[in-house]
Amino acid sequence: MQNLRILAALGLMGAAAVANAEVTSTWTLTNDYDFRGYSQSAKDPAIQGSIDYAADSGWYVGAWGSNVDFDSDVDLEVDLYTGFSGESEGGLGYDVGVVYYAYPDDSDLNYFEAYGGISKDWFAGKLWFSNDLGGDDTDGSTEAFYLEANATFPLPQNFSLLAHVGYSWGDYWDEVGDETLDYSIGVGYTLNRFDLALKYVDTDTDVVERGDVFNNEGRVIFTIATTFPWKND
């Protein structure tokens, strides 16, 4: 019941986007919540929602939520984040900030992560760092890095080609068994106010999770998302 109240609160905050142009809310449906190559929903569908405020100065703050399945009593993730973003006169974008990953069912899993990224035209890259990946519930050293590169190539007729590669390393990954390379390739399509994406996700690691929980095998993921307020065309 508590988790339903949290998701409902996100929905009510999203409704505020209609009344404030600086506030947006994005809602996504997916057949699998993928996080850096690992399923967070045990290969089951997930509904995800965010509420975001962006100021003219480049400062932003927001919250994002999703159902999860860790084969335990944990079934909800709520992320809180803030940062600064902008773009140079030459079109080089930047984004720096921090995220707090919260699990209301088990606060021992909570942790912070800082990030910094750049973007230009169809390319975006970002470096992430946490000194406590996995929170207090993790044994041993928990420092971890994640470096990712993403590309979105526009195609005719509202289609786009999507590509991603990421690499996880650090003491945390040494403790759990192996550093991980994750990658995906897919296609996106914009249909009116909805963004659809179909992609193949896989990882390259010596520690393969074949069960549903935290599965990191190759799989196909479909998402459909829309952002409020809807603007008139």
Determine the mean pLDDT: 91
Q: What's the name of the CATH homologous superfamily?
A: Inverse autotransporter, beta-domain
CATH topology: Porin
What best-fitting shape do the alpha-carbon axes yield? Answer: globular
CATH class categorisation: Mainly Beta
Helix segment count? 2
Contiguous low-pLDDT stretches (5 residues minimum) are 1-9, 14-19
**Quantity of strands, as a count:** 14
Query: From the helix content, strand content and strand pairing, which structural class follows?
Result: mainly beta
Order of helices and strands: HEEEEEEEEEEEHEEE
Helix content: under 10%
Keyword list:
mainly beta; Porin; 54% strand; disordered N terminus; 14 strands; two-stranded antiparallel ribbon; 233 residues; twelve-stranded antiparallel β-barrel
Protein described:
It is built from 2 helices and 14 strands; from the N terminus they run αβββββββββββαβββ. It has 233 residues and is mainly β. The chain has a single domain, classed as Porin (Beta Barrel), CATH 2.40.160.160. The strands form 2 sheets. The chain has a 12-stranded antiparallel barrel with strand order 1-4-5-6-7-8-9-10-11-12-13-14. Strand 4 and strand 5 (59-67) form a beta hairpin. The longest helix has 14 residues, at 2-15. The protein is globular, with a radius of gyration of 18 Å.
